[in-house]
Specification:
The chain contains two helices and no strands. With 57 residues, it is mainly α.
Length: 57
């Protein structure tokens, strides 16, 4: 049984929240045909992926 370190859980929540928000904005941008919303959503997902790649506990 491993005990998760609290900051690891916090980073995981940030990554999941940022990814979910990014995907939501991408879907909204696609439905509204707003390219700027698509761009914001894509950058949010890219940011979540970069945090995941860089932050390896």
């Amino acid at each position: 049984m491993t005990i998760e370190w609290l900051p690891d859980r916090g980073i995981r929540r940030v990554i999941l929240a940022l990814g979910a928000a990014g995907l939501t904005v991408i879907v909204a941008g696609a439905l509204l045909e707003a390219l700027w919303l698509l761009g914001i959503g894509v950058w949010a997902v890219i940011t979540a992926m970069m945090i995941e790649l860089v932050y390896r506990p």
